[in-house]
Design goal:
11% strand; six-stranded mixed sheet
Length: 264
């Protein structure tokens, strides 16, 4: 299947946080850019291969809650007349102290309905399984409920489901940035391959084969956990207290469709 108009929606997961590239808007690359690059290389104008036939927009901004993703991104995405949409929303909501997951999914359901009505192929994501990760494992039950509800609304609207929860390999810190919340370049690259596989698109992204990770001593684990709490957890808690977001002041990376040449 070929796609020529791809629009990506969401939060930091789709913006590309954790995969730094100072040459790109907001200083990141991410799995969605990698998917777009592969799609562009295989674009066809109906008469044969034509990279110039492909365009890509990425409206995602880090820190956005589901309601913000829906309010700020769904309408502009529809206006771009996409034939492919990827959307992940709700991850930041899951980390809030209180959450009505049923009301959250009801709003997601309506947004997916609007996107599916365009006729575009729509891809949604479940959240990953945090059961292996200290601190984040306390969210596992809430995430599991969210994921099951997401699967239900995705099936209702004929959306494809990229099931991060069931994806092997992400129980390894090398797949994650130092903040333990966002994927590393390796994690983003792996995710791009899984999305392309789901779409049935040939690609040349080869999954990395990782040697067994070194086992940290308890002393090393305590040092690493203390450093993580100092550099990520503490600042994150302070932002919640002050009511600010890591995405404040940022604009979408590619708010208007860009060509394959602009992605290179």
């Amino acid at each position: 299947m070929g796609f020529t108009r791809y629009v990506a929606l969401g939060d930091s997961f789709t913006e590309g946080v954790g995969d730094p590239d100072p040459t790109r808007p907001n200083g990141v690359r991410g799995w969605a850019d990698r998917v777009a690059e592969q799609l562009a290389a295989r674009a066809d104008d109906g008469t044969g291969p034509d990279r110039s036939a492909f365009t890509y927009a990425n409206l995602a901004i880090r820190g956005r809650l589901l309601d913000e993703v829906v309010a700020e991104q769904v309408g502009p995405a529809i206006d771009l007349d996409p034939d492919l949409v990827t959307i992940y929303a709700g991850g930041n909501d899951l980390m809030r102290p209180s959450l009505d997951v049923d009301k959250l999914i009801a709003r997601y359901d309506a947004a997916l309905g609007d996107l599916a009505a365009t006729g575009a192929t729509v891809v949604v994501f479940t959240a990953y399984d945090t059961g292996w990760a200290p601190v984040f494992r306390m969210l596992r039950g809430r995430i599991a409920i969210y994921n099951e509800l997401v699967r239900g609304v995705a099936e209702r609207h004929g959306a494809l489901i990229c099931d991060f929860w069931r994806m092997p390999g992400y129980d390894d810190y090398r797949m994650w940035d130092t903040d333990r919340l966002h994927m590393s370049p390796l994690g983003h690259a792996h995710m791009s391959g899984r999305v392309l596989d789901l779409l049935g698109v040939d690609h040349d992204i080869t999954p990395a084969t990782l040697a067994a990770a070194a086992v940290a001593t308890r002393r090393e684990q305590r040092r690493q956990n203390a450093e993580w709490a100092r550099t990520f957890l503490g600042p994150w808690v302070m932002r919640r207290i002050r009511g600010v977001s890591s995405g404040d002041g940022l604009t979408p990376r590619w708010p208007h469709p860009v060509s394959a040449a602009e992605l290179a």
